[in-house]
Amino acid sequence: MAAVTSPEASQQARVYFQTPPGSTEEAETPVRKQGRVTVKYDRKELRKRLNLEEWIIDQLTDLYDCEEEAIPELEIDVDELLDMEDDVDRAARVKELLVDCYKPTEEFVAELLDRIRGMQKLSTPQKK
């Protein structure tokens, strides 16, 4: 429904569009809003992190010689690794997590440390 203001109120007529009461027009056309995550974080950093996490899952499935669902319960926290002082501490932490792996992990650990070098920590965004 359109409502037109009177010409006396302003120099130009203005038209306002309103949805009639009881109409389902809004439900029929979903509006896609940009996610809040991409507003808080750099999209490029999020893409890097996603690619890294996918790579880690692929490597763990190879190391444990199983499907993704069967990987032992372990979490390689990239932010935790980035908080550590140096690569020696990071390598020790990753090896500690992979203690149950029967395959050699040195190559995986070296590649992981190389991939996280230069990445930014994704801290939890502050609510405004």
UniProtKB/TrEMBL annotation:
Belongs to the PP1 inhibitor family. This is Protein phosphatase 1 regulatory subunit 14B-like. Coiled coil: none annotated. Residues 1-33 are annotated as: Disordered. Keywords: Acetylation, Phosphoprotein, Protein phosphatase inhibitor. InterPro entries: CPI-17 (IPR008025), CPI-17_sf (IPR036658). PANTHER family: PROTEIN PHOSPHATASE 1 INHIBITOR POTENTIATED BY PROTEIN KINASE C, PROTEIN PHOSPHATASE 1 REGULATORY SUBUNIT 14B. Pfam families: PP1_inhibitor (PF05361). GO terms for cellular component: cytoplasm. It comes from the Eukaryota. GO terms for molecular function: protein serine/threonine phosphatase inhibitor activity. One of its GO terms (biological process) is innate immune response.
